[in-house]
C-alpha cells in the first residue's frame, strides 16, 4: 500500500484518468509531456520532495508491467538505466499488445528522446558507410565500439551493406549485453570481436580508424569523460576519428528521463566545447554535430580527429585527471 499526500495525489489523479482509459491518444501526448515537466520542475524548485517523486515512481511501477517501456525503464531488471534490452526495445519500437499498455508504449516510442536513440543508430551506420566508401585501396578498416550494448547498429549495417572490409571490436561491461549481441549478430561473428570488459580497464595494442561511443559518455562525470577521451585518442590511427554521442539538454528529454529515473549527464554543445577545451582539445580541433544541424533529436555528436590536435598537458584539470581512479 502506497501512502500518498495531497501533492502526490494531484499528480496521480491526473495520470490515473489516462491510465483508466488505456493511455493517451496522439493529440494528448503534450499533456503527458507537461505532466512529466510539472513533476520535474516541482522537484527542482523544492515544491515536491524527492521522497514524493519516489512515491509517484512507485505508483507507476505498480501500474506498468516490466513488459512495457515505462515499466522497464523504472524497474531496471538488469540493475542499471540504459541497458542493452531497453535500448533494443526502443530501436525495435516495442509495443505491448495488451490494450491496457499499448498506447503508453506508442507514446514512449513517439517521444523525442526515443526518436533520438533510433536516429543515433542511423548516424553510426552513415559514419561507417562514409568510411567504407573512402576505402579505395580496400584495406581493413578497424572500428572500436565502446559500450556497444545490443549492437543493433552493427547488425543492421552488416545486414544492409553486404560485403565490406570492416572489422568491428565491441567492448561492453555487461556480459548479458555481449551474449545478446553475439546472438543477434550470429551471422556475422567473423567480422566482430567482443570484449567483456570495463572500458577503463580495456587494453589493446591495436589502433582504430573509428572509435564510436553512444550512450556511455552520458553516464560519465566530467573527469571520467575527459579521462576516456584521452584514452580513446591514444587508440586511434593517424587519420582516425573519435565520435561520441552525448544526450543534449533538450528540456522534454530531461524531464521524462528524470521522472522515470533514467539519470544522465545532459550536455549541450557549449558544455562539450568547454569541457574539452579546458583540458584537452582546442575548439578548432573538434566538430560537434547536433540537433540543429544534420541530426534532429536530442543528441550531440562530438567528432575529434587527433591528426590536428595539440593536447594541453599542463592544464590544472589534466593533472586532476591523471590522479583519479576511474571504476
Ligand atoms: C545505453 S547503452 C548504449 C548501447 C549502444 N552504444 C547503442 O547506442 O545502442 C550503454 C552500454 O554501455 C555499457 N557500459 C556502461 N559502462 C561501461 C564501461 N565502463 N565499460 C564498457 N561498457 C560499459 C552498458 O553495459 C550498456 O550496454
How many beta strands in the DSSP annotation?
7
Structural class: alpha/beta
- Please write the string of helix (H) and strand (E) elements: HHHHHHHEHEHEEHEHHEEH
Strand percent estimate: 5-15%
Counted by DSSP, the helix tally is 13
CA-atom Rg in angstroms:
21 Å
Q: What's the helical proportion of residues?
A: 40-55%
Layout of SSEs?
Blueprint: H1 6-20, H2 29-45, H3 50-63, H4 69-75, H5 84-91, H6 102-110, H7 112-134, E1 141-146, H8 152-161, E2 166-172, H9 175-184, E3 192-196, E4 208-214, H10 222-233, E5 236-247, H11 251-259, H12 269-279, E6 286-289, E7 299-304, H13 316-323
Parallel strand pairs: 1-2, 1-4, 2-3, 4-5
Antiparallel strand pairs: 5-7, 6-7
Helix pairs in contact: 1-3, 2-11, 3-4, 7-8, 10-13
The protein binds S-adenosylmethionine.
Question: What labels describe this entry?
Answer:
single chain, 327 residues, alpha/beta, Rossmann fold, 2 domains, 7-stranded mixed β-sheet, 13 helices, 7 strands, disordered C terminus, binds S-adenosylmethionine
Explain this structure.
This protein is of the alpha/beta class. The protein folds into two domains: 6-111, no CATH class; 114-323, 3-Layer(aba) Sandwich (Rossmann fold). It contains 13 helices and seven strands. It has a seven-stranded mixed sheet with strand order 3-2-1-4-5-7-6, with helices on both faces. Helix 2 packs across helix 11 (251-259) and helix 3 (50-63) packs across helix 4. S-adenosylmethionine binds next to helix 5 and strand 2.
Amino acid at each position: 500500500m502506497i501512502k500518498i499526500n495531497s501533492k502526490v495525489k494531484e499528480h496521480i489523479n491526473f495520470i490515473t484518468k489516462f491510465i483508466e482509459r488505456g493511455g493517451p491518444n496522439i493529440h494528448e501526448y503534450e499533456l503527458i509531456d507537461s505532466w512529466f515537466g510539472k513533476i520535474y520542475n516541482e522537484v527542482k524548485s523544492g515544491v515536491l520532495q524527492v521522497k514524493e517523486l519516489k512515491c509517484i515512481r512507485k505508483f507507476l511501477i505498480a501500474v506498468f508491467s516490466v513488459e512495457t517501456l515505462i515499466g522497464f525503464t523504472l524497474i531496471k531488471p538488469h540493475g542499471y538505466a540504459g541497458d542493452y534490452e531497453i535500448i533494443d526495445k526502443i530501436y525495435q519500437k516495442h509495443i505491448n499488445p495488451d490494450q491496457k499498455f499499448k498506447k503508453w508504449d506508442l507514446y514512449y516510442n513517439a517521444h523525442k528522446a526515443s526518436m533520438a536513440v533510433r536516429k543515433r543508430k542511423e548516424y553510426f551506420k552513415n559514419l561507417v558507410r562514409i568510411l567504407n566508401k573512402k576505402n579505395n585501396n580496400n584495406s581493413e578498416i578497424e572500428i572500436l565500439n565502446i559500450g556497444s550494448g545490443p549492437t543493433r547498429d552493427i547488425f543492421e549495417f552488416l545486414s544492409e551493406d553486404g560485403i565490406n572490409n570492416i572489422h568491428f571490436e565491441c567492448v561492453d561491461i555487461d556480459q548479458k549485453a555481449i551474449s545478446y549481441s553475439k546472438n543477434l549478430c550470429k551471422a556475422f561473428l567473423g567480422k566482430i570481436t567482443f570484449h567483456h570488459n570495463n572500458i577503463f580497464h580495456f587494453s589493446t595494442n591495436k589502433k582504430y580508424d573509428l572509435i564510436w561511443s553512444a550512450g556511455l559518455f552520458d553516464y560519465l562525470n566530467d573527469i571520467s569523460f575527459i579521462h576516456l577521451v584521452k584514452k580513446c585518442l591514444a587508440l586511434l590511427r593517424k587519420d582516425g576519428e573519435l565520435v561520441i554521442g552525448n544526450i543534449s539538454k533538450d528540456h522534454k528529454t530531461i524531464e521524462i528521463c528524470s521522472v522515470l529515473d533514467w539519470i544522465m549527464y545532459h550536455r549541450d554543445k557549449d558544455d562539450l566545447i568547454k569541457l574539452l577545451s579546458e583540458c584537452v582539445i582546442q575548439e578548432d580541433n573538434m566538430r560537434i554535430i547536433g540537433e540543429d544541424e544534420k541530426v534532429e533529436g536530442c543528441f550531440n555528436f562530438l567528432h575529434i580527429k587527433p591528426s590536428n590536435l595539440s593536447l594541453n598537458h599542463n592544464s590544472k584539470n589534466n593533472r586532476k585527471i591523471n590522479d583519479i581512479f576511474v571504476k
